[in-house]
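Quick one: structure for this chain?
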Amino acid sequence: MAADIATYLGVRSAIGPSVRADGRRLAFVSDHTGVGQVWAMDLPSSSPRQLTRHDDKVAFVDFAPVGESLVYGMDRGGDERIQLYLIEKDGKAAKPLTARPEVIHAWGGWSADGKRVAFAANLRNQAFFDVHVLDVAAGEERCVFHGDGHFAPVAWSPDGKHLAVIEMRGSLDIDLHLLEMATGRIERLLAPRGESRCQSIRFAKDGKSIFLSTDFDRDHLGMARLDLATCKLDWLEAPAWDVEVVRPSRDNARVAHVTNIEGYGNLAIRDLATGKDLKIELPGPGIVPEIVWIPDGSGVVFTLNGACRTPDLYRADAATGAVTRLTVSDTKGLKVTDFVEPEVIHYPSFDGLQIPAFFFRPKTPKPATGYPTVMVVHGGPESQYLPNFRTEVQFLIARGYAVLATNVRGSSGYGRAYLALDDVRKRPGSVADLAHANAWLAKHPDIDGHRIAVMGQSYGGYMVLAAITLYPDLWAAGVDFYGICNWLTMLANTGPWRRKQRAKEYGDPERDRDFLIETSPLTKVNDIKCPLLVAQGLTDPRVPPSESEQIVKAVRSRNVPCEYVTFPDEGHGFVKLHNRLTIHGAVVQFLDRFVGGRPNG
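Got it. Here's what it folds into:
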């Protein structure tokens, strides 16, 4: 008998690596127990041991640059109000570094001497993030910079006198500043010539320059070195794709970097003396979201996550490029051959623009009328559907559904110009891209054009609601995970730290009020014809439950089938295993009822 949803959701992962200063210990986050916790193992290879045992998901773990201490972060029930915890040595109990459950603490890293940590916090005002520094041993905390914006420390200078600080004004506008600790003086490092993004930031070992990924004066993110004296960029790699991760070795002899090509990660190690790249041959296609250097520069540890490959940790030798697997997460007996690798396709939209997407074709026999299909829309909107491992997607495929995951205009990974194509009044164009994806599917010889559902979460949930209201005749069903139905109420009720940035992307509630009302799915709810399933975490700080409640009430008042599933202990995303079993089981039953897959077990 084929595997059921519980088997697929039982597949485990290991992500977020951090290597101890002596290079002999690796910490990471694993969901081996059903929810992500801190685990550790000796290098080069040993059996991992669990260090934390919480009911909530650990967000990250980071070893100090000296000694054995590590810090991890965790929220409560998905409320995103991260608190920081310290483990001084394996085997010792964690102690809280912050204990303000109403405040978000965004990790900024350890100082080079391992004595202080930096983080951003919205303590002074929920709408703004200031820069804080904490002396770990003394427990003394001070705010070293505050401003009426979203500021976050991202790297310490080697001498501990400066912090690199980003200011997030919008998804396409992330400024880089240098903060002088003693005086609080802050300097913008890249002179404004329009908006640009700065990310993946690390100081050089001499403190005189910064390695980073940026699209300053470019359409795509490139790898650069910024001279702090002249504020000039030296481009190390400037391809026609995004260089998303940049990590220099401790001695600055090499820099590891990942380029996103059509959604797939390409990892290489650059020898800075020769300028030559050592391309790392990955065990399979996928994405590489994280890289950390082993302190002696002998290699890097990275996460590999592929559509057919569950997330695990690997080591790449910096001299030879040889790759060794470090963790082997439980796959519950499922094999790579049980999964489906997508095909990268492009389809034309209303204006001739080619829209990239991933097409998953089932291995099960094709029904006489063709496969039913689930179209998956990513959240964000400044995000990208990536070919990573998604248990619910692979289960739907095994159950006889084709899946089309589309990166409509406004998605990241394809340059600034493409990313800006859905801003404010251009937003209906991205919804039209879904209608043209439906048309592409309907013409495909393997697809039943009358059995196409659309599914998405967060902003993707909005896209679901927009699609079934603007193009009501195209869809057999909709699945909305905590989506937006009313722009005005969402912008009024979302976390105050998000309002300004979201308004820049979606529209200003005063200036664009009529447009926001017009493009709110709730305005056209009477046009909905297909059955709808809505899922919502009740502690969600981003898309409040009132969004789901409004659309459910309105759809049910029209006697259209509408299922509503809520979770009191989840926020913006469902992370607890028992909740994931509930919601994905409900989704499969809903789709089988209204769209009709081919049961596999």
